[in-house]
Amino acid sequence: MDRSEIVHDNFLRQVAARDLPAGHAPAGPLTAVDAVMIYRAGCLSRALDRQSRALQKAGQGFYTIGSSGHEGMAAVAAALRPTDMAFLHYRDAAFQIARAAQLPGQSIAWDMLLSFAASREDPISGGRHKVLGSRALNIPPQTSTIASHLPKAVGAAYAVGAARRLRPEHQALPDDAIVYCSFGDASANHSTAQGAFNTAQWTAFQSIPLPLLFVCEDNGIGISTRTPPGWIAATFGQRPGLKYFFCNGLDIYETYRVAAEAARYVRRLKKPAILHIGTLRLYGHAGADLPTSYLPRELVETEEANDPLLHSVRLLEQAGR
Ligand SMILES: Cc1ncc(C[n+]2csc(CCOP(=O)(O)OP(=O)(O)O)c2C)c(N)n1
Ligand SMILES: [Mg+2]
Fold first, then answer.
1. What SS3 state is found at 122?
2. Sheet of 86-87, strand order
3. Mind listing the domains of the chain with CATH numbers?
4. What whole-number distance in Å separates Cα of residue 131 and Cα of residue 143?
5. Is residue 132 a contact partner of residue 96, using CB atoms and an 8 Å limit?
6. How far is CA 75 from CA 51, 211, 300, 304, in A?
């Protein structure tokens, strides 16, 4: 059976039986309204992943790399402003959906489905490819060429300070905007990514403003190659000029709290930071691959048992929502 069906069946059965994975109690500044919005964004993201597979089977969709396991990114979006330009990892559907909830008049599910179907009416790619992105939401569209968006994000963050110094030119973002840039744990090793981190650090080291929040979505794997345990914390924990934060991406309360703290740091000091988010990847890399062919079945099942949506149901219930 397809792992996406297994995850879906587990979700329905476990929610009905209140058989939910254990974890910390909800804590922090996340409001009830935002907690529910974040959960709903995660549910829509999950439904779109399932729909992309159905569309592919029907010959109507062409892209199945999904966001399942990364639903906690909705909590990061909630901690930012829609004017904070966001360069997104391809698993950030929940981020985009949550950001759409911050602006009136958005039809985000429809727009994303047009993209899945490679429709020429897709407002962001015109049908060229399935991409995340939205002009209204300040999400420039990216390809899935890993790490290619990191140098662009560094440039955009530099431009926030440059626009202030060179009035009245090029003032595309508010003076107190920050730039957000997410990527996967394997992408972090790419030389293009390394060049972007170094440029950000080199700039910050000289106290040149660079309000940039990097986010590493660490699901422990890149396609079928596992990241050595502890690598992301080890490599990012002590970089000069790049402050390190960590949160558990399965906990929307913790993710919101730490993302808000990291965003506040970047916004106030106009210095770059990196938020390392512990997450997991459900259903393999894309529709075409079978994770149990390259990972031990027990590991796949342990991750499925930690479905972030199940954690969110528990957290919302514990918070009395
Ligand atoms: C420049 C480039 N090289 C290789 C690939 C093929 N590729 C697609 S996804 C991926 C691994 C990404 O892993 P990670 O950054 O951990 O993100 P995840 O899919 O786990 O969220 C690779 C190597 C690519 N898309 N772009
Ligand atoms: Mg990964």
1. coil
2. 86-87, 179-184, 212-218, 273-278, 243-248
3. 3-318 (3.40.50.970)
4. 7
5. yes
6. 23, 20, 25, 20
For a pocket test of ligand 1, which of 146, 236, 294 has the largest count of ligand atoms closer than 8 A to its C-beta? Answer: 146
Q: Does ligand 1 have an atom closer than 6 angstroms to the CB of 182? A: no
Is residue 249 within 6 Å of ligand 1 at its C-beta?
Answer: no
> What pLDDT tens digit does each residue of the chain (321 aa) get?
789 999 999 999 999 999 999 999 999 999 999 999 999 999 999 999 999 999 999 999 988 999 999 999 999 999 999 999 999 999 999 999 999 999 999 999 999 999 999 999 999 999 888 889 999 999 999 988 999 999 999 999 999 999 988 887 667 899 999 999 999 999 999 999 999 999 999 999 999 999 999 999 999 999 999 999 999 999 999 999 999 999 999 999 999 999 999 999 999 999 999 999 999 999 999 888 889 999 999 999 999 999 999 999 999 999 997
**How far does the centroid of ligand 1 lie from the alpha carbon of residue 34, in Å?**
31
Nearest CA owner, ligand 1 atom 17: 184
Identify which of 216, 223, 279 to mutate to test ligand 1's pocket (most ligand atoms within 8 A of the CB): 223
User: Measured between alpha carbons, how far is residue 147 from residues 144, 154, 184, 297 in Å?
Assistant: 8, 12, 9, 30
Strand pairing partners for 180? 86, 213
Query: pTM to 2 decimals?
Result: 0.97
250 and 307 Cβ atoms separated by less than 8 Å:
no
Q: Is 164 helix (H, G, I), strand (E, B) or coil?
A: helix
